[in-house]
Amino acid sequence: MHAAQNSPRGRQSTDTGAKEAYLAMVERIARSGVRDVATEREELRGISAELTRWLADRRLLDPSGERLSTPDRALRHFVAEHRRRLRETVEGLGRDAQALDDVLSLLSAPRLDAREAVETEYFTDREHTRERLEELDALSREEFLAMRNSFPPAQVLEASLVRDLEMAANGIRIRMLTSQQALRSHAPARYLNALTDAGAEVRVAATVPLHMNVVDRAIVVIGAGPGPQGEGGDVILHSTPVAQCFVRVFTHAWDLARPHTERHSGHGRTGHGRSGCALSAQEREVLALLATGAKDETIARRLACSDRTLRRLMNQIMEKLGASSRFEAGVTAARLGLVS
After folding, report:
1. Is the separation of the CB atoms in 202 and 176 below 8 Å?
2. How many angstroms separate the CA atoms of 60 and 43, rounded?
3. What's the gap between Cα 208 and its chain centre?
4. pLDDT per position as a tens digit, 275-333
5. What are phi and psi of 258, to 5 degrees?
6. Exposed, middle or buried by CB within 10 Å (0-12, 13-18, 19+), for 37?
7. Distance of alpha carbon 100 from alpha carbon 90, whole angstroms
């Protein structure tokens, strides 16, 4: 019922009836020859609220609501009202244009002492730093530069590898420069091998001056060494000019480094592990559970097997994947797409 009343046909009917009522009242006034204000007021009080609104919206009713207005008077009222609105609009646009010019002039004004404010974040808790790095990695769109003079434990590296592989899969160019000292343990070497297989560029230098990340040449994450109280700290700088300075440092060290071509012996093996086709459904389930961080007791309980059987399964998996440890098996499985 409500929809029918608001339909175009319903509005047209209302307009027609209102026009006819208005013309009838005007005709009665014209026939009388003399405009009787009291009679007109009384008649207007007797019309419906809907007709009153219709007349008022079209300025055909005096603001007092007691007299009818002629169409030409209503038209003059509309013109005056719109002229006022246009004048206010023009004045408002003029104020906005002046304000815009003032703001634009400030952009080109010389800054005090030619200094730029740099947004800085400082972390003393390395776990909080890693959480923030995950957020920044997700914001990366074009390029990720990294310098490493050391690597975290294998478990942290494994979690980092998942994010790094996602960035590589999203088309982000990854360049990592590391020191020879950092490659002496097996976990970093396997981590870098997996990155190289995913398309990242890795180079090795005798020494690396900094431990840092540069995200899209706009954000720098740098290890700041001991803090004010002797604690370790990490600093995040949000500034394109500052980031460009660190990019030049990175590029200089990168040009002097050699490509990372050394492979761990486990990756040089051939056999079923290169394709993963020989893994059984049970072995794949073990890998999937390991990827979630499940412990041996949980995995054995899930598979309804003994600890001895689980160890045998793990040895079989590492042999098929050509891995010498659980970590390497996880890295290889992730690279081959054997676990999600």
Report:
1. yes
2. 15
3. 33
4. 444 678 788 888 878 777 778 888 888 888 888 888 888 888 887 877 767 777 777 77
5. -110, 150
6. exposed
7. 15
